[in-house]
Amino acid sequence: MDLSYSPEDLAFQADVRSWLKERLPVRLSDKVKKGTRLTRDDYLEWHAMLRERGFLAQMWPVEHGGTGWSAAQKAIFDEEIVAAAAPRVSPFGLNMLGPVLIKYGSEEQKDYYLPRILNDDDFWCQGYSEPNSGSDLASLKTTAVKDGDEWVINGQKTWTTFAHFADNIFVLARTDPDAAKPQEGISFFLVPMNLPGVEVRPILTLEGEHEVNEVFLTDVRIPLKNIVGEQNKGWTLAKYLLTFERTGIANVGNNKNSIKGIKAAARSQVKNGKPLIDDPIFAAKLAEVEIDLKALEVFNNRTIAAAGAGKAPGAESSLLKIKGTQILQETNDLMRRACGPYAAPDLPQAFDEGWNGEPPGPEYALRAARKYFNNRKTSIYGGSNEIQRNIVTKAILGL
Amino acid sequence: MDFELSEERQMLKDTAERFIREQYPIEKRHAATKSEDGFDRAIWGEFCELGLVGALIDAEAGGYGGTGEDIALVFEELGRGGVVEPFLPTLLASIPLTAHKKRGEVQMDDVVEAAMEGRTHLAFAHTEPDAYYAETHVETSAEKIGDDWELTGRKAVVVNGGTADLLVVTGRTGGDVSDEAGLGLFLVSASSPHVEMVSHQSIDGPHVAEITLNKANGKPLGTPGSDWPLIEQTLAAGTLAVCAEAVGAMETCKDMTLDYLKERKQFGKPIGSNQVLQHRMVDMLLELEQARSVVMLAANTLEADRLTRELNISAAKNLIGRAGRLIAEESIQMHGGVAMTWEYAVPHFAKRVVMIDHLFGDSDHHLQRFAELSREAEAAADA
Prior knowledge:
The structure holds 2 protein chains of 2 kinds. Chain A is of the alpha+beta class. Chain A has helices at residues 7-23, 26-34, 40-53, 71-83, 91-104, 107-118, 234-245, 252-268, 280-308, 316-338, 365-374, 385-397; strands spanning 124-127, 143-147, 150-157, 168-174, 186-192, 198-204, 210-223, 227-228, 270-271, 274-275. A 4-stranded mixed sheet of chain A has the order 1-4-5-8. In chain A, strands 2-3-7-6 form a 4-stranded antiparallel sheet, with no helix packed on it. In chain A, strands 9-10 form a two-stranded antiparallel sheet. In chain A, helix 8 runs antiparallel to helix 9 (280-308) and helix 8 packs parallel to helix 10 (316-338). Helix content of chain B is 51%, strand content 16%.
């Protein structure tokens, strides 16, 4: 047993770290540090840099232009980009659709779409959830009906992250309303968003930000070839895609970074004449979440190592998601508390690029409560934590 | 990263697991804890023969293990089977004795080898009535009289103290009651007329003793006055051992509860078909995996620098305390009335898991200690 990284992994880590140090533009890392809103162009700029270095398609095998990284390398990379305050990759084309096309797409689809994803010719978003199909995704009502040499799609998608940036959406739609089980009548479609009948409406999240949308599809006509995989077998693809959504789910790097931030804040915040970090109650809460994170990091690495040794991570990732989001939300809570009264003033303009106004309290206090509220989403999306418990109940406990 | 056991360790684990499963039914545990000794001397002999005791001892003292990984591996199996034989005091006492032997300053009979073979019984007498969980709190005085050292004071809740032939005792040569400086480690004969003992059964099984030392002769095992680092290292190994034991016992609680959810029927269906119980069972599993992970970390860094070792030991002990309480209480609750009976096995494992929190500092103690060590580590990193 050896809990440290292999020499190859350490070399990889050093390589990533030095590349980030050298190449990550200060403009972007400043934005990430301050929580400034990232634009579509920011993502494209960052993608271009990753592409140039060969770091962009992290879930793809080498033969399709991917990195071919092991799970350990992927985890190392994730931790390094968080530590360096680099933006994340927009995941929908690269980390979700890409792997689905590689496994289930036709040769023609692979040849056409994969290079376009790699080159950012297309910006993708994910048409899964619907207003009445959240946890019970297979109950979705959007329909696709064959009409001559076209599919005609009707329905409504929701919580569509970056639909306002995207020009393409992959859509789950019902193609057989009479199937014996709801999962059996679903197909997976590729839909250009410039077609007539596609309408995107913003949803403002509870803290007032625009990252998700509703997407209305009204008599949208796409060519027959825009179906991926077999007709009525889309559920298999949908589930396969979700396994990629769950990678990196333990959020170890992010959580480590949050703890650093809390410590910095709690050192400068004074309570009863002493730094907040010396307050026994605050210190105890912080220590507890740090300990949980230490354990989670090993648990996550155990899962990664098992996958690396040819064993599938499977339902353990559901356990990682539950604990990872519990820790994430706990760190957000501690950060909000560390700000005291100054957690309250909300300056949406402070997250515009180029803002150089005066924050009423500490600079970090501007984002604390926003982040806390926004990240309540983490235990809801990607399969709510209750759905994760259902998965573990069936897959591991056998109940 | 490699989480697989080496071939030798896998064999050791399999041997321990099989032997305990086949030879250590819960009735054996009950008979042992009810006996005057508090354990079964015959089966202790078999454990020694199997090499499970030797696996806890450094090669230089005649064993073939003694690393964090060995300790965690053996104690997890002991916990899984609810073993009450004196592995813990043997491990604790052997560490100062091994350090003493390595230095080779004073020749003495090979105590560790005799203990490994089951010929001699050892105990580690450190905790005192007023110490609560403070590691450095030692009032027992160690006084040099000519060439001899004499120990006077009271030691509390000494695991298997009553059956020990030899005691490894901590004493104070000087300094304030909780100073690190001024501590020493001494070997004391338990049969000395200057040593009085009263033994009790503990609620979770093992027997513990209150020991009064009245000018008892002690042979120094280190450098009297400067033994704190060795004492801390010994306590770290003991803490790791009971953490790993708790993981094994928690796993038994989890397995038995899961079986029960599948078998027990109410309202015409298995109680495990209720989502409220399913989700609580998932939370038990999740905390068990967290506990297992943090114990792996502590085991892996037992030989690391002091700060890394102690940080991870405190992290492990805190998490084990929290996860242990959850798993013990939930196992009892989900079993319902049957878990309230002496006859059923689960409550005995649950009791052990909860009472491990009372050994080597509870979860609150280690939370505070972790926070302090963490600040120490950051200050060191900044410097």
